[in-house]
Design goal:
173 residues, 7-stranded antiparallel beta sheet, mainly beta, single chain
């Protein structure tokens, strides 16, 4: 891509929508994060901000808007689970991205209790059950760092998010 074909902005005072568009050019996996509070409140949402932090000790992180309705549930919970979705699970990503009184109701046959009684979804590409290590505010989000206590994975193709759309992988010849 030539410089003339690129939209260019620089700080200070750049447009946050344009920054979001630029960040959206980085393809990410799509995950659902679930938790359960000490009083039994379950919460879940779709994210694409998941990352590995360390192998020794096994740490992962993800980021949540400081305006998210589920912020309190995730901040107060001792455990959470990150579910990496397959290319065939776009319907799950769309469902858990929308507000709902009980996001788990349509999938009750595919949910079981995990560590800390966190709802765990069956048959995802990978799953990381974590003990919350810390919740730290950064800008308009909080970083939730977790110590991986149990994990599993499969071999299907991942669901990706790129430039505002769900995508699937294709092998490079």
């Amino acid at each position: 891509m030539t410089n003339s074909a690129m939209a260019q902005n620089s700080a200070p005072g750049f447009d946050s929508r344009e920054l979001r568009n630029a960040l959206g050019r980085f393809a990410t996996g799509v995950c659902i994060v679930t938790t359960s509070t000490p009083d039994g409140q379950r919460a879940a949402l779709t994210i694409n901000s998941f990352c590995s932090v360390s192998l020794e000790p096994p740490l992962v992180a993800w980021y949540l808007s400081d305006r998210a309705p589920s912020l309190r549930a995730f901040s107060e919970s001792e455990y959470f689970a990150v579910h990496v979705l397959t290319a065939e699970q776009q319907h799950l990503a769309a469902h858990f991205a929308k507000p709902s009184a009980d996001k788990f109701a349509p999938f009750s046959d595919h949910v079981r209790p995990g560590l800390g009684n966190v709802p765990v979804l069956a048959e995802t590409l990978a799953r990381f059950e974590c003990r919350t290590a810390t919740v730290v505010p950064y800008g308009d989000h909080v970083m939730i760092l977790g110590h991986v206590e149990r994990f599993s994975y499969g071999a299907d193709s991942p669901l990706l998010f790129h430039a505002g759309r769900f995508r699937e992988t294709a092998a490079v010849p």
